[in-house]
Amino acid sequence: MDRYVQLVLVLVGVPAALVGYIGLVEWVVQRLPDKRQPQVRPWLWIGPAVALLTFFLVYPVLNTVYLSLLNAKSTAFVGLVNYGYALTNGDMLLAMRNNVLWLVFFTGVTVALGLLIAVLTDRVPYEAVAKALIFLPMAISSVAAGVIWKFMYDYRPASQAQTGTLNAIVSSFGITPQPWLIQQPWNNGFLIFVGVWMMAGFAMVILSAGLKGISDEVLEAARVDGANEWAVFWQIKIPLLGSTIAVVTTTIVIAALKTFDIVYVMTSGNFGTDVVARRMIEELFSVRDYGRASAIAVILLLAIIPIMIINIQRFREQEAIR
Length: 322
Prior knowledge:
Order of helices and strands: HHHHHHHHHHHHHH
Largest sheet: none
Radius of gyration: 26 Å
Number of helices: 14
Helix content: over 70%
Distance between the termini: 56 Å
């Protein structure tokens, strides 16, 4: 019975509290001088959002930075020792190298493939069906994708029947089955392919929307002037898609930097496939070293911040043009 009471309180109380807050804000604002009202009202309206962001985002970040300066049990100050470990330990350097591989190949292949598919399926009769099939992997979680492709890459000795799809295909041509997820350094490429398989649909949808936003008159004018389709693509479409490509690239880069699920499910970071996010989880839950885990988390945050700054600057430039 208590649960039903709580449910009613949430369904009724939250909207009632919101309406009450809005009414209180307007009551307060109306009693201020007319010149002050436009300055005060926005801050009072966004006050709850700012408070929630501070509590759930700003405070955890500051607390993580603080913990990164303490020892494993957060009982003594050790300064930058944890950062020294994160930047010099062999396992961490391997994880950072793999993150760079993800950053370069995952981002590049995903954006390029998404753009290629968007162009090839643009304005064809089966466009909706093709895009739906390509976007379908986005409907499943990264963990599910890892499980699916772990079975796809499954390996059995050549004397046994192959249960993995890829090895079954390879063995049907008389080629020896391969332990795809163990062979270094190619196993990183097979993991990256899973990420591309998932995110190419996302890139395709966003870039396809950008393509459809390009005026047909501009393209026809270029063709009338003698430009072939190759020239139209590189000299007209790509420049006009610049901002859209930047947004997609930024999103994929952030996904590459925080890659975790696929690696954890398919290899658990073994066989030279470890990444920074999995190392953070390892330090936090297995080693129980809160200082090192926090330092790794801060390094990941610092790696993402410049990308976000560049993206914000691009948005501001676009708004200035408009």
